[in-house]
Hints:
Layout: E1 2-9, H1 15-25, E2 29-35, E3 44-51, H2 57-66, E4 70-77, H3 92-95
Antiparallel strand pairs: 1-3, 1-4, 2-3
Amino acid sequence: MQHIFSLSINKKPGIIIRAALIFERRGFDIDFMEISGEDSSGLNKMIIRATGDSSKVVQIEKQLEKLIDVVKAKYISSELATDNKLQLESKPALLKAV
């Protein structure tokens, strides 16, 4: 099943690979990853859509929040991720979810 996560991050070297490794260690495949530019607070937004076991979603969210450069991690939904017509670029509410 596909899942969407939204993160507020300090864009520092290595943050992308550290986040990706959390998913990889739990058997998830990342289908989509996008990092937007800085907002007014100086943070970047990272959107990750991944496929994996629903029972591990809470664990992934907690592990992402433990990363030093992640300010906030939020699981958005699995229902939005399975919508084949989903265009994250056209859903500004998703980018503001965190």
